[in-house]
Amino acid sequence: MLIYEINPSFLTIVFVFSFSCPVYAAVTPADLQGEPNDIVRISKVYSQKDLSFSYLETLLREAAMNENGPSPLWGIVSLNNHQESQFYYFPNRSLEEVKTYYYNFLNSIDESVDFIQTGVVMDSLHQESIETGLENAPFETAIKLLNAVKKDVTFSSSVPLPVYWKIQDIDSESFILEIAIGKYEIKPGDCLSVLAEQFDTTVEQFMSNNQNISDPDLIYAGDFLVISK
Length: 229
Hints:
Layout: E1 41-42, E2 46-47, H1 53-65, E3 73-79, E4 84-90, H2 95-107, E5 113-123, H3 127-136, H4 138-146, E6 163-169, E7 174-181, E8 183-185, H5 192-198, H6 203-209, E9 224-226
Antiparallel strand pairs: 1-4, 2-4, 3-4, 3-5, 5-7, 6-7, 8-9
Helix pairs in contact: 3-4
């Protein structure tokens, strides 16, 4: 289990706060519209067999790009050992409106949560420094970002934790930053035995944490692994 808390007041400083997909009928961009006064829109829990994590990533990125006004904030949660997912979407509301609800969201984390991938639209002025930090020292930079204002981020894990991050340009003035601690994106040529050694764990623990995998010799580039104790 991975436990952490993010201080969304960092939204005002730097952080402002987990490819081709099939079309799913279960959720569409219209599902993110909600009511004008909504502060948070929470999806149902989806089986990864029915709705892939990558589809939710694409859906939320596109929704964020189409927002006007203050930057939206969103999180995609991997649940129950890589078997289910859920999203939380905080549309264009003031920081004060979002803060309490986002805290409540983070405080609801329990043992079913593998990791939370948080995304936000940011000012391009911060892009170079954040990207350099994540390239050179991803874990340290992620912790620094999350702890920029309030020292309240804690992680419970007995293995080295990878940092997934993605930066996507929107235009010359803004970009999307997504980050998740405890998520590893599978690369071509990866195999569980080598990754187990890299992350000081075992293939058996990988299988336990990623119950979507039925054959340890068959993993797919572009999918992800939950890395936890």
